[in-house]
Amino acid sequence: MDVSLRPVREDDLPFLNHLTNDEEGTGAHQWYGWHNPHRHRKRWEENGYISDDGGYLIIARGDDRIGFMSWTKQMTSRVSYCFEMGLIVAPEFRGQGYGTQAQQLLARYLFDHSTVNRVQASTEVTNFAEQRALEKAGFTKEGILRGVGFRAGHWQDGVLYSMLRADLN
User: Fold this and answer.
1) Number of domains into which the chain is organized
2) Structural Rg of the chain based on CA atoms
3) Does residue 1 surpass a pLDDT of 70?
4) How far apart are CA 44 and CA 135, in angstroms?
5) Could you read off the pLDDT of 78-123 as tens digits, one per residue?
6) Is 81:119 a contact under the CB 8 Å cutoff?
7) How far apart are CA 3 and CA 66, in angstroms?
8) Where in the sequence is the domain holding 44, given as residue range(s)?
9) Residue 132: which residues within 8 A CB-CB, separation 6 or more?
10) Measured between alpha carbons, how far is 106 from 88 in angstroms, rounded to an integer?
């Protein structure tokens, strides 16, 4: 069964907290330490996790919550921007292609509902599963970002990927 994306609902907030505030739920490449457990409720009450500058969507397969996709507006010049996207898939659904499908859906959604020309994503150089998923989703590897992210007490190198509107043909 294919996945779909849907807006965050109030009953999704504990699931989001598990995937972002629990080392078991985040996975090795997304664990940045604990945060305020009420931050998801606050953001949901502010804007339902969707704004002009970004948002979250739940990755679903039928009634199952698979994970979530996020995107944020990144200014690329004084007059242009792109979207940076990311995801976390729940541990029991990793390695089954759901992340790849969700990344394709979000990229298509962003191109269909904005004038953006570029969607980008990055991951740590050691996150080979995510690199494969991005490539399968149609993203192009652009290069290494040295010392770009701090996690687990060390600066981590990253890999930048992009998809342009023209890549969708």
Assistant:
1) 1
2) 15
3) no
4) 31
5) 999 999 999 999 999 999 999 999 999 999 999 999 999 999 999 9
6) no
7) 8
8) 4-168
9) none
10) 13
